[in-house]
Amino acid sequence: MTGCLKKGKLEKEGHPILLIDNFIGTGETAIETLKEIIALKGYDNKTLFIATLVCQKEGLKVINDYNVLFEVLRDKGISNKYFGEELIENESIMKSIEEILSIDSKFEDKFRFGYKSSQALVTMNRTPNNTFPMFWFQAKLGKGEKLNAPFPR
Questions:
Q1: Phi, psi of 92, deg, nearest 5
Q2: Cβ(96)–Cβ(113) under 8 Å?
Q3: Distance in angstroms (rounded) separating the CA atoms of residues 29 and 142
Q4: What is the pTM of this model?
């Protein structure tokens, strides 16, 4: 296929636009991309589709006005799985782990419990920063000590 299809031809002939990503966490990146495409090309949510391997439920809520195709839909790793005392205990354990990570000055608060508290439990070739940082953040603890992450970014 050569050339660029125009919006009218896409709609008339029923051609969809498919955006592909490996992971949707908060949904922010997807929304930014969709808004940009809509502003530049005039497409709409009847024409646009998003395909992803893994999607956090919180991210899906953000982009629910669009057609989203996914294989795996994930809850938050702690707050949607535990309740009562068990929830409090697991949150406390994660906070104590992240206090160790925060010894490294490069550790940012926005990554506590994963980017914007996504609490994802997902790893890929490049582990999403929505995943709990203990899995991907390589912390320098001082005096040449490091905390090696099992799935570094």
A1: -65, -40
A2: no
A3: 34
A4: 0.84
